[in-house]
Amino acid sequence: MLANVATVVLDGVHPFELGVVCEVFGLDRSDEGLPRYDFAVVSAEGPRVRTHAGFEMVVPEGLERLEEADLVAVPAGDAYNDRDFPQPMLDALNRAVERGATVLSVCSGVFVLGAAGLLDGRRCAAHWRHADRLARRHPLARVEADVLYVDDAGVVTSAGTAAGIDACLHLVRKEQGSAVANGIARRMVVPPHREGGQAQYVDRPLPRAQSDTVGGVLSWMERHLDREVTVEELALRAHMSPRTFARRFQQETGTTPYRWLLGQRVLLARELLEGTDETVDSVALRAGFGNAATMRHHFVRWTGTTPQAYRRTFRSPSPSA
Question: In this structure, are residues 23 and 88 in contact, taking their beta carbons and an 8 Å threshold?
Answer without folding.
Answer: no
